[in-house]
Specification:
The chain is of the alpha+beta class. It has helices at about 40-50, 95-100, 150-170; strands at about 15-20, 30-35, 55-60, 70-75, 100, 105-110, 115-125, 135-140, 145-150. Strands 5, 6, 7, 8 and 9 form a five-stranded antiparallel beta sheet that branches.
Length: about 170
Amino acid sequence: MSNLPFTLPACEQPATGRIEIYDPTRPVGSLDASAYVCDQHSDDAALAILAAGLIAQRVPLSPAMARTCGHVYTYPTGSLAGNLTHPTWCDRDECVRRQAHCSAVRDVDTGRVEETALAVVLVQYLHPAAQVMVSLTALDGVTGGERILMSLGQARVLVYRLRQLLDASAGGAR
């Protein structure tokens, strides 16, 4: 497949193993492709995938699966599918209805009960000039919720400012 960022050895021998390929920029558990390899090319294939900046995880090959070494199956919802209508981070769920591409929701969960629940999402509206933005939603039990949209530049500065405040809080009172 020409849109893959790696080249696998392909000896056309029967595959004896499978390598699951994940994009580290996507949500955990988002399988992007499966590569089928023989014993001789298993290490070379995994190294080629890792060199492309992807995660390679070897898994057993089902005995009922008949593939040749070098065959790659690209999942249509994965970032390697070459689907140019969605950004790689898009959850591909009702984009037309929402009129925006949205990433998976990332909860800001401390593992403790908090007064306010926070969630962040990447958003890009469907018009051609739309920029990617960060949506921060805060929900509380009293006033409902508040959504703030910010540019990626604002989000970067916010991260920097939060780090400064967290570092200052670790120093104690002055």
